[in-house]
Amino acid sequence: MSNYFKVEKNGKVDVISFLFSELSIDSAEAVKNDLYSLISEENKFFVINMGQSNFLPSIALGIVVCFNKKILTKNGRVAFCCLMDQVKTLFRITRLDEIFDVYDSVQDAVDSFTV
């Protein structure tokens, strides 16, 4: 169990809901380790719900990009949902919106998986 997010199963998709508004550099390593521990052959389809996060520092962007790379090696997929305006802008500026599928709601993101 992580102090930084909660995970709910929705079929074969794990919905990860971040529980922080801003990720500090001090907690980034713990978040990374907790996220990576979720990856397995059975758990490789993820939706990351950003509904409570209004800012992501560059270290957090690196974590989600590396998380995605690990998922891709398992033939999995990561989608994002519920991005606040500031995070949407950050995704657009960094072009992460071209790497990740981004949805308005958790249900839309979950429905995008054909597993």
Would you kindly provide a written description of the structure presented here, covering whatever features stand out?
By secondary structure, the chain is an alpha/beta fold. It has one domain (5-111): STAS domain (Transcription Regulator spoIIAA). The protein is built from five helices and five strands, in the order ββαβαβααβα. Strands 1-2-3-4-5 form a five-stranded mixed β-sheet. The longest helix is centred in the middle third of the chain and has 16 residues, at 58-73. The radius of gyration is 13 Å and the shape is globular.
Summarize the structure.
The protein is 41% helix and 22% strand. The chain is α/β, with parallel strands linked by helices and 115 residues long. A five-stranded mixed sheet has the order 1-2-3-4-5.
**What string, H for helix and E for strand, traces the elements in order?**
EEHEHEHHEH
Class based on secondary structure composition and strand pairing = alpha/beta
- The helix tally amounts to 5
How much is the radius of gyration in Å?
13 Å
Total domain count: 1
CATH architecture: 2-Layer Sandwich
Average of the residue pLDDT scores = 89
Give the proportion of residues in helices.
40-55%
CATH class equals: Alpha Beta
Number of strands: 5
Q: What is the CATH topology classification name?
A: Transcription Regulator spoIIAA
End-to-end C-alpha gap: 25 Å
Low-confidence stretches: none
Q: What amount of the residues lies in strands? A: 15-25%
- What characteristic shape results from the CA principal axes? globular
